[in-house]
Amino acid sequence: MRQSARWMVLLDDRIMEFIDENGPSLPSNIADDDRIPYGSQHIGNRCRKLAEVGLLENLGTGVYVLTAEGKSYLEGERSVEETPESSEESEKGTNGV
Description:
mainly alpha; WH-like_DNA-bd_sf; two-stranded antiparallel ribbon; 5 helices
C-alpha cells in the first residue's frame, strides 16, 4: 500500500501512474488523458512539486520522467510520508502566510 505525504493530492498518483505507463511526458500529454480531469497548467504545477521532492525528474524541456524513488513509491516499496515539502511551502508554513 502506498504511503503518501500529507502535502500530496490524488492527482500526484495519477500523474506518476501515467508517466510510468507512457514514459517521459509533457503536462499537456497528461492533461489529454480522459482519466485525468485537470488542465496542463495545474498538472505542470504538480509535476514541478513532485520533481522538487525527487519523485519525478524534469528533463529540462518540460518533459517529466519517473525517478527510481517515484517508481518505488508507486510499487508501495517507499513511503513518502517523511518527504519534506518544497522550501517555498515550508517557508509559508513557518511564516504563517
